[in-house]
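Case study B.
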Amino acid sequence: MLIVMKNNATSDQVAAVAAVIRSMGYTPQPVPGVQRTTICVLGNTGRVDSSQIEVMPGVWEVIHVTKPFKLVSREGKERTVVRVGGAAFGGEEFPVIAGPCAVEDRARFLEVACAVKEAGATVLRGGAYKPRTSPYAFQGLGEEGLRILAEAREKTGLPVCTEVMDTDTVELVSEYSDIVQIGARNMHNFSLLRRVGRQPKPVLLKRGLSATINELLMAAEYIVSEGNWNVILCERGIRTFEEQTRNTLDLSAIPIIHDLSHLPIIVDPSHASGRWDSVIPLARAAVAVGADGLIVEVHQNPAMALSDGPQSLKPEKFAGLMRDIRTIAASVGRKAGATF
Amino acid sequence: MLIVMKNNATSDQVAAVAAVIRSMGYTPQPVPGVQRTTICVLGNTGRVDSSQIEVMPGVWEVIHVTKPFKLVSREGKERTVVRVGGAAFGGEEFPVIAGPCAVEDRARFLEVACAVKEAGATVLRGGAYKPRTSPYAFQGLGEEGLRILAEAREKTGLPVCTEVMDTDTVELVSEYSDIVQIGARNMHNFSLLRRVGRQPKPVLLKRGLSATINELLMAAEYIVSEGNWNVILCERGIRTFEEQTRNTLDLSAIPIIHDLSHLPIIVDPSHASGRWDSVIPLARAAVAVGADGLIVEVHQNPAMALSDGPQSLKPEKFAGLMRDIRTIAASVGRKAGATF
Amino acid sequence: MLIVMKNNATSDQVAAVAAVIRSMGYTPQPVPGVQRTTICVLGNTGRVDSSQIEVMPGVWEVIHVTKPFKLVSREGKERTVVRVGGAAFGGEEFPVIAGPCAVEDRARFLEVACAVKEAGATVLRGGAYKPRTSPYAFQGLGEEGLRILAEAREKTGLPVCTEVMDTDTVELVSEYSDIVQIGARNMHNFSLLRRVGRQPKPVLLKRGLSATINELLMAAEYIVSEGNWNVILCERGIRTFEEQTRNTLDLSAIPIIHDLSHLPIIVDPSHASGRWDSVIPLARAAVAVGADGLIVEVHQNPAMALSDGPQSLKPEKFAGLMRDIRTIAASVGRKAGATF
Amino acid sequence: MLIVMKNNATSDQVAAVAAVIRSMGYTPQPVPGVQRTTICVLGNTGRVDSSQIEVMPGVWEVIHVTKPFKLVSREGKERTVVRVGGAAFGGEEFPVIAGPCAVEDRARFLEVACAVKEAGATVLRGGAYKPRTSPYAFQGLGEEGLRILAEAREKTGLPVCTEVMDTDTVELVSEYSDIVQIGARNMHNFSLLRRVGRQPKPVLLKRGLSATINELLMAAEYIVSEGNWNVILCERGIRTFEEQTRNTLDLSAIPIIHDLSHLPIIVDPSHASGRWDSVIPLARAAVAVGADGLIVEVHQNPAMALSDGPQSLKPEKFAGLMRDIRTIAASVGRKAGATF
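Model:
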């Protein structure tokens, strides 16, 4: 940590800051400059809580040189590969999670599950509990949805992934699902993060609507700090002023996160754009930028979907996308999907 | 609802959309234009779910003319006044909620409670459960903090306000606190919103880090739809590209919300700016823009605060602010604080 | 400047960075830490260009402790008061610039000029050259508009303010106008900034659509570095994800700019909100937050205005606003307008 | 255009709006609903200026169903292919513009020019006039830089591209350069847009720092409306709250722009990320998402570059990137670069 003093800071003010640093167990080293004095803090092994110092007289700015996360940091660690059934996130493969936004009906879900398996999907998705902006919108089938998911797993052999919305249902969802998903709106729900950190299934953690990369990694740190190291991060678009897309997919986050953390990061082009005709090009770009996988919405009849229809691909479009993905994945040294 | 067709839409496509509208129980009225046809939907009394139509061939854009919220909408309703102890939010008064970010210690909390009461605060604040970005930061005293809050209420006669972070603790917090607060990071935690909608205490609902005004009102709609009409909204800054402030306080939201909703809206200048020297001018501006109250952080010794020290006012600064508020409140036809 | 090395940086890498610092004429002082080494740069009197160092092997981050601007910095300087006719920006008074968005017609402009003077405005505004998003929208009357402005100054005795859009017309605008305005869309037009820095009239510099506070101050530095110290800054709203307002007025910028710079800063509530019914509360808030003045759009018949009608106040509304401003200005120790 | 009336609008208010529509030469068609009346405007062939109507009593919202741009709209037009020397933007090829940020020195520029040609670049770039945030930073060599560019064109046979910053130098830049570039900071400099619309060379138009897609297209409309149809659009990152990257590259803009406009759109990954190690993955993603080309910064010795060193690739890295691009381009049905 570095404490930059104001250019008119008195020597008494410098001494007072140095005293507080010593009281915290660290060593202050003042470095006088032409314009102002900077005090370096030596002896800390992690990030220092600077709030006491920031408000002291004569202090201009406190600068942290230690990142706030440690368990999820890449420094000194190998890349994590999260394995779920036959799928591996973070390795040489390029797994694809696919299925409808919500489980709406048993027969229809089993049908789409077979279709996405056929096309080469690696994991099956489908929401049983749906976070909806409006209290009047379809909220999911709940436990019945979980049972349908389990049946689809039996039928297709694919592992399943579904979202958990509150601490009350973590145990239930964890029992049925192979991957427990935390949605964007719950990325800062710290009670829920802690709770999924204490259950055994891998966690798919979506970036919040306006979360910074640092905050996404800190949310993962919450989960890992409870003992669950199997965390898959997911970029799904951030909120900007642009009005033509629901969110702005931040593909530049992928190389940055690979640089900062050992955790795998996948991309959700469906929620990012909100328009199915943008999903295919964005999915291709996600492969090319180096993402560790995709999560894509597929629905037999998007016009009749109870949620997020406009962003869902029909199964035949999805099959075409899987072919594109394989070609691009090969061109960046990766293998896509389950069937090859 | 209006459905704008593409300029090369066929008459079959127009007919297909009209058929879907009829199947939903509404009346389609096509309005042919020089460039394109628009289909008006007649007969709906609330917002229509448009997802089926958005993906139909020939459809260019679907435009909603009905706002998605109804219970919290101002149309046809009187302004809500939320009463807590002697305080009234949304009326002629200008109540001020004050206290430290977190309850850290019994003696210290009682001391600052008396100081803010002395200065004219209307409600006492203090966090027992703290949402923190880092799992390694101070997380609050939990139930012990709630007991200290209750003791401070006894001693000062002021009602208290504290945050609830998950559904598991709603009952406990509701028992101890006079106002139950939903923090910005939980504004989209729909399970929690529903749950506080079913307890009897007034709810202070903070705008999410990057929530639109519409989303804030929809979150309030979740609470009200469960039967609890005593919701106080709170603007606390939104996320932008500006780096000199923690968040950008969106004071333009105040007149907009007064126009759209009957609920009272207060301002939190402390979390918005993150710098105590900006809190005072922003608090003055909040009064002048027409907010229905303030929530301000006050701490005896900000340098030693376990959370959010840099944004806390010392009691004497707060007392000065209360004097400013009274003057400006009077100049916009309002009365500030409890003591006059 | 501080150079933070990676935690696995070699001593050769540290030495190489130190050598570059010495080659720039400064003194490197390495400060070894438990995790990593930081190199402080000593001996510089201004901001150091760090681009050479940022890309060297072993360098993790370069941190500047010197702000990039110097002439406009507050450090070591008195507040600037910009005087135009009888108006003073940055002192005890609270001047108000008012008038229609564009000069559309001689008779109508003279009429509104008299009305705003009557209500207490200090400076008259009106656009002769209009930056419009669409090439098909009204672009202003050009030199004829400047002549009408001059006539209005004769008639009312108020100084006038108008925008300049390109280097070709700076001389002409400077000849006619008492304040030369740089619009938000030209805040980064560096050729234009330099050019207005070499003409004698005070400059009103608007913050760009998504400019940071630092960038606004750097744009002012461009003007001042050419010799013109009479710069009035203007906050007019920034671009965010919020859709209910055209822009988000960033009132928190006012205390920050007062802290960083000696230049006066005024507020434009009309362009920020785009809705006349928000202009009045935001104008009140601007006074209370400590702004050094206002610029407000007034039009006799907003429904017939050729540009920005929806955000214009009618003269009688403006007169009411001036009364509010006086009351609030008095409550924060200021005097508003020309007539008292 | 549609005018949505308030739910308590009187029939007189509806009649008044209808009268204004008729006075504008269009036909009003009121469509009464359960909650409110909507008035459709019939008979317009382009976007209607709605400002008169927005402020009328009883009007709730005005909704445009006609896009504001027409010449650049895709509706009814073939895709534009912009040809410069042997390069074609918007067709089957994938051209790559490469070179240093600024022309700094004759010998060094000729050397890097040969290196990027060797690697397969299609067009040579280099700034002679540099827009810099600080007035104290290197501002470019001016006309001498233009002469060096011309010499490099002679030597390599590649066409050249350079930025123009003001109307005064358009003629000069247009004489020397094969493509005239408008930088992000000048995207809203309407005088400059008009001026480059009246010179004969193709224009490379960069998206502004926080410009919406609509605004980018409107800026292109300014150029095209003066007669110059050879406009190449460029996505270069937008401003968001994320702090780990300089800007957030908005690759979702590519399919949207292809949907809205016939103009080609290329991607600048160098300015978007500001970090050379992110440039390569983002360039790959740009090919995969369907962009019509790239513009990339290359410098022999980024550590000694006078501007934007940290984001420049060394020639050998660039050669590797060109190989990647060819593979991915082939996988999406495109041919990359000049040499094959």
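Chain B has a mean pLDDT of 89. The remaining cases will be described in the next quarterly update.
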